[in-house]
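F.,

This is the one I mentioned.
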């Protein structure tokens, strides 16, 4: 259901005209004297760089005062890059307003929920809804587009930068006006809004649109639907700004594709990128690895979701880091092998370009300790040698440009509404972490060697999947509830968890016992939630039918479950806790159809690794890797008509033999009888696919 727009990917071309994977970085030449620019181009060529993002933070240099322009230096850089055969993903340069603008127009500065002004001094200090900001920014966009429309180096437009990174929630008067307009469009009448927001509660009934405000600092819990709508509105406001820039770009350079860098990574939750995907010609993402034991599971999860957002078309990795960043608590450098491994894991999941922040490590400014392709040490460094080697690797992978990820048989649904609503205040627990629960399931699948697609809940055809996992699908509008029912009746196997199906799109409870929207399908009824105190756990006894070896432990949540429907098996019961002896994991198997499983507690990645084989078995889904993989290797497959490209990614620090895996080695260890991955190594094997196998998703029913 993704727009055809997301296929206009700006491939670089090799000397013979064939596609190349993109390779490059954000390039900030304004931080360096003129003589460095030529050295930059020389080193870029040495590394195999074929695309850079330029002028992202250049507004103050391009428009030094409100009525003067200085494009000379950028003309020169564009010319040098073109002469070096390097394409430019040219920024519209609107990301960071210059001091003259914020001095003349302080009314563009965002305001926090507590009424404080977000002052200039860093970047992105602008209100997405400010008409004054918009008129100045769009004037710059028009200047840029007009000046560079026919420049031969221009291959794509880069709107602003990471929209919403620092300014997603603005509570200013501009935001209040725009929020009211957005609400008028959503609800048409005040009666409809009063109903949706449940304003009979706490005397919140509105009699005039002008009385409505963003959820600014309040004495107690602000109205939950007002909060949820403000999150939806804030995502829409930024998307609206993106569309305002693109309208000008489309008018002046209709042939040049437009993108903006999304931030599908943990910690960023304000923008509903599934809803933004149609607004760009190709999806771009920025991802920075987290630290900790599951950091590469998280990387894989986000890359996988980015592919889902892009409708499984090729997408563009716009930024990641060659080594340490500067903004974590402690900024660990990457270990040997990780630079290439992380990049190739994105490629495995459909990235046809690999770019970094940034090309040359800054000597001054807030990001001078952030790694880059050319470090402070210069070209005579291990890091630059690794960068050059990655360039060679990506050249070797040129044949897979344009291939797409082979559909998995298992899907994990991801839903921004559920993420936003399930973590709001005044809930049974404040410890629920939507992203972590989804990642737990993904980690378990990785360990089992089962491939999965992480896909947006509302934009994905479920039918082709054998198993659909819907962790904490909290907001369930009737349409999606019906779709899930049809899916199971059509033979699909649905797995869902605690706090799913509890509210509708207005955040109103589905009444009559939880989970209201899924009660009939699951054949259970929950009278009361039993969240657990921080650190508390409950024991679970699996039934032999569950195929689980040993006991399971739950945390965070329990439910008081009654079985109410036919054909419901109890796969595990609580052994301890308030609900001891009651069902904890249930599965309804509809004869000759599919099944619907409910997991009422947080089992974590370990528990789910034990439980999942039994849940996947009825669908005939099992791990695909040899036992020797030991849970450390991830397999992802990309394919075009006749070829399968099998990525084998060693997430671990030990050598892993992979007997039985064969194919032409495009990247990886030298040919041997048994493929052996070194620590953190990636192999890419080319296999010839049978024409039958090249068809779209397969299911075994
Ligand atoms: C973001 C920004 C970049 C840079 C990096 C640092 O991704 O887009 O400008 O600040 O973070 O990690
Ligand atoms: C107070 C208030 C009630 C209600 C309860 C909830 O007692 O007076 O209106 O909010 O707290 O615990």
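My design for it:
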């Amino acid at each position: 259901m993704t727009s055809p727009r997301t296929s206009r990917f700006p491939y670089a071309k090799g000397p013979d005209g064939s596609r190349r994977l993109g390779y490059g970085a954000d390039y900030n030449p304004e931080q360096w004297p003129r003589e460095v620019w030529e050295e930059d181009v020389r080193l870029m060529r040495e590394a195999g760089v074929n695309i850079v993002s330029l002028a992202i933070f250049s507004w103050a240099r391009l428009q030094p005062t409100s009525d003067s322009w200085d494009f000379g230096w950028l003309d020169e850089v564009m010319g040098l890059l073109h002469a070096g055969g390097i394409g430019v993903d040219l920024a519209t340069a609107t990301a960071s307003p210059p001091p003259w603008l914020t001095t003349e127009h302080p009314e563009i500065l965002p305001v926090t929920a507590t009424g404080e002004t977000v002052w200039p001094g860093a970047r992105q200090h602008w209100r997405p809804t400010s008409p004054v900001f918009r008129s100045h920014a769009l004037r710059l966009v028009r200047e840029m587009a007009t000046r560079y429309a026919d420049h031969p180096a221009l291959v794509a437009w880069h709107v602003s930068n990471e929209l919403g990174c620092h300014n997603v929630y603005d509570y200013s008067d501009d935001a209040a006006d725009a929020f009211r307009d957005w609400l008028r469009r959503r609800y048409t009448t005040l009666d409809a809004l009063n109903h949706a927001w449940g304003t009979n509660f706490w005397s919140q009934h509105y009699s005039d649109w002008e009385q409505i405000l963003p959820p600014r600092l309040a004495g107690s819990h602000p109205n939950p639907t007002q909060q949820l709508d403000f999150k939806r509105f804030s995502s829409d406001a930024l998307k609206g700004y993106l569309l305002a820039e693109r309208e000008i770009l489309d008018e002046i350079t209709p042939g040049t594709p437009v993108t903006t860098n999304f931030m599908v990574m943990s910690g960023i939750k304000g923008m509903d990128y599934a809803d933004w995907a149609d607004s760009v010609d190709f999806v771009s993402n920025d991802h920075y690895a987290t630290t900790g034991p599951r950091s590469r599971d998280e990387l894989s999860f986000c890359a996988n979701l980015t592919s889902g957002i892009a409708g499984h078309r090729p997408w563009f990795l716009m930024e990641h880091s060659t080594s340490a960043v500067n903004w974590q608590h402690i900024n660990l450098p990457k270990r040997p092998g990780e630079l290439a491994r992380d990049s190739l894991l994105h490629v495995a999941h459909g990235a046809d370009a690999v770019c970094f922040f940034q090309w040359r490590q800054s000597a001054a400014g807030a990001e001078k300790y952030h790694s880059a392709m050319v470090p402070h040490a210069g070209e005579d460094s291990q890091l630059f040698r690794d960068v050059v080697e990655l360039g060679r690797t990506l050249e070797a992978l040129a044949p897979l440009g344009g291939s797409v990820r082979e559909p998995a048989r298992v899907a994990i649904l991801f839903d921004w509404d559920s993420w936003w609503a399930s973590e709001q205040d005044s809930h049974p627990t404040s410890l629920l972490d939507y992203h972590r629960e989804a990642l737990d399931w993904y980690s378990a699948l990785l360990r089992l060697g089962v491939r999965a697609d992480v896909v947006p809940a509302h934009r994905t055809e479920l039918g082709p999947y054998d198993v659909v996992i819907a962790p904490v699908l909290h907001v369930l509008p009737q349409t999606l509830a019906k779709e899930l029912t049809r899916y199971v009746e059509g033979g699909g196997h649905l797995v869902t968890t605690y706090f799913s199906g509890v509210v509708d799109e207005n955040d109103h409870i589905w009444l009559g016992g939880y989970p209201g929207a899924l009660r009939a399908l699951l054949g259970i009824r929950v009278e009361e939630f039993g969240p657990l105190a921080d650190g508390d756990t409950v024991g679970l006894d699996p039934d032999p039918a569950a195929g689980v070896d040993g006991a399971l432990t739950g945390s965070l949540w329990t439910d008081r479950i009654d079985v109410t429907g036919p054909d419901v098996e109890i796969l595990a019961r609580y052994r301890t806790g308030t609900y001891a002896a009651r069902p904890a994991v249930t599965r309804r198997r509809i004869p000759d159809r599919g099944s619907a499983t409910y997991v009422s507690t947080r089992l974590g990645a370990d528990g789910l690794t034990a439980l999942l084989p039994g849940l996947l078995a009825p669908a005939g889904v099992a791990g695909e890797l040899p036992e020797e993989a030991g849970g450390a290797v991830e397999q992802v497959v990309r394919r075009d008509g006749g070829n399968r490209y099998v990525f084998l990614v060693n997430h671990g620090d030990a050598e892993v033999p992979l007997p039985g895996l064969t194919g032409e080695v495009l990247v990886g260890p030298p040919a041997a009888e048994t493929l052996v991955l070194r620590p953190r190594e990636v192999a890419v094997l080319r296999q010839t696919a049978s024409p039958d196998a090249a068809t779209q998703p397969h299911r075994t029913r």
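The first helix runs from residue 34 to 47.

Talk soon.
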